Amino acid sequence: MARLVYDGVEVDSRDGETVLEALERAGAVVPSSCRTGSCQTCLLQAVEGEVPRAAQVGLSPGMVARGGLLACRCLPSTDLMLGPADALSPSLAGTLRRIEAVGDGTVLRVWLTVPELDWLGGQYIHLQRADGLSRPYSIANLPGGDVELHVAIVPGGQMSGWLSEAASGTDIQVRGPAGECVYVSGEPDRPLVLAGLGTGLAPLLGVVRSALADGHTADKHLFVGARAASGLYLLDELQQLAADEDSVHLHLGALDAEGTEGVSEGKLEDHLLSQVQTLKPARWYVCGAAPWVRSLQRRLFLAGASLSRIHADAFTTRSD
Amino acid sequence: MSNASVYDQLGGSAAIDAAVDIFYRKVLSDDHIAPFFEGVDMMSQAAKQKSFLTMVTGGPNHYTGKDMRTAHAHLVKRGLTDSHFDHVVKHLGDTLAELGVSAELIATVASVAESTRADVLDR
Predict the structure, then answer these.
(1) Is A38 within 8 Å of B51 when comparing Cβ atoms?
(2) Does B1 fall in a domain?
(3) Alpha-carbon span B112 to B5, nearest angstrom
(4) Domain residue spans in chain A?
(5) Predicted ipTM of the assembly
(6) Is residue B108 in a domain?
(7) Cα distance from A294 to chain B (closest Cα, Å)?
(8) If you count Cβ atoms within 10 Å of the first and of the last residue's Cβ in chain B, which end, N or C, has fewer?
(9) Alpha-carbon span A42 to A70, nearest angstrom
């Protein structure tokens, strides 16, 4: 028996009863769906108490470290003081350091200092301006210094417009990190295939850098695309990365290659799908605009990629 | 082993992940039923498929007919009928057959799936 406290409800769990069942019996409202530990809808955070390992299967290392637990899988062994999963993502103080337009000028590379932020390559954060305006952006680098974001400049976009004119030293709030588009450790022999359109490149760089830091040995195929070749950015750095690392293979694509050397003309997904049969056991990462990501995810799956090995980060853009 | 569920015989949660791949691929490749999955988020749908496969194979679940009814009500309005349900049950059986489940046990699983028909079709 363990005493559970959550959202004003206090209840002693019964033998064999999960945290979710006990809280519901006591009248607490806990969002839940599958009740088998896969959907993560019932994610809670233990502020006090020991969380059984079995209640953390499938959670990111960050969530595990902060006491995240799946209420439907948690048979409590000690008393638990519980909170909603929102508590996992407090607002952190950050400072803008450097903002640089890259490529054809439609992407901003933004560095900010957020001393208390820890993250996994490929995750994203929410930038929150003093007036409350908040937008998610993927992180392109690994912890150990300033956070690097790639921000697409959206015509009329409030946050990107503001960032393009913001001064170094401006304070900004950060929430996160979040996202499961991350490197999975323990499979050094499994090829990685990473495809991104536009600033979808940012999380992919995070994943590739995590893989390299982890000693991942198998091939990492990085497919980077844009509408026109002039929209590709960070080309020097990408080519340098591929030159330095034997396992990193760079494939550049654009609908209009504009005669640029090394850039294949056509749809990025066609280049990618032609590889599925040979790379079926790979782990797949797909990042970019939501409609493109959803469609490619589906095509990869139907072509034989396993759902549990397709990671996607679908960006939604707001033009206000 | 005669009392072990199909779920346990397949190998539990990890094996169900593999079954979801096969099952969901069959469902999405079937033009008769695929339109009902247009615009659906694949990952959250896969989590639901996993719950469903766990339930029909006798694994740990929290099935309620009410959830099934609520989840499919908008599809019934769009014309979901017995023939669509029959296709799904067939794909379920074919999936288990590919995984080496005996015909006898597949029949048991199919009868569990069959028990959800009225809820799914909202009648």
Answers:
(1) yes
(2) no
(3) 12
(4) 3-88, 91-178, 192-315
(5) 0.82
(6) yes
(7) 8
(8) N
(9) 6
For residue A70, which phi and psi values (nearest 5 degrees)?
Answer: -90, 115
Fold of A192-315: Rossmann fold (3.40.50)
Chain A closest-CA separation from residue B123 CA (Å): 23
pLDDT tens per residue, range A83-121:
877 555 668 999 999 999 999 999 999 999 999 999 999
* Interatomic CA distance for residues A260 and A239, integer angstroms: 14
Measure the CA dihedral A39/A44/A45/A48, to 10°: -130
Query: Count of CB atoms within 10 A of residue B77's CB?
Result: 9
Query: Which range marks the domain in which residue B39 is found?
Result: 6-120
- Within 8 A of A308 by CB-CB distance, chain B residues are 17, 21
Task: Kindly list the residues of chain A whose beta carbon comes within 8 Å of any beta carbon in chain B.
Answer: 33-39, 72, 294, 297-298, 301-302, 306-308, 312
Q: Write the pLDDT tens digit of every residue in A171-187.
A: 999 988 877 789 998 99
- B31: domain CATH number? 1.10.490.10
- A35, A294, A307 member nearest B62 (Cβ): A35
Alpha-carbon distance of A218 to A253, in angstroms, equals 23
Is B81 domain-assigned? yes
CATH of domain A91-178: 2.40.30.10
Contact residues, chain A, for B43 at CB < 8 Å: 307, 312
CB contact under 8 A, B25 and A301: yes
Report the CATH architecture of A3-88. Answer: Roll (3.10)
Nearest-by-Cβ selection for B51 from A36, A301, A312: A36
What whole-number distance in Å separates Cα of residue B6 and Cα of residue B70?
27
B12, closest residue in chain A (CA to CA): A36
Total domains in chain B come to 1
**Whether the Cβ atoms of residue B17 and residue B10 lie closer than 8 Å to each other:** no
Residue carrying the six token digits 């948690």: A74
Asked if A297's CB is within 8 angstroms of B13's CB, the reply is no
Report the run of H or E that residue A161 belongs to, with start and end. helix A158-165
Q: Are strands A124-128 and A171-178 parallel, antiparallel or unpaired?
A: antiparallel
Q: What is the pTM of this model?
A: 0.77
Q: Which two tokens stand for residue A311?
A: 């990671």
Distance from CA of A303 to the nearest CA of B (A): 9
CA B101 and chain centroid, separation = 15
User: Per the CB < 8 Å rule, is B47 touching A33?
Assistant: yes
**Residue B12 forms part of a structural domain:** yes
Whether A301 sits inside 8 A of B51 (CB atoms) is no
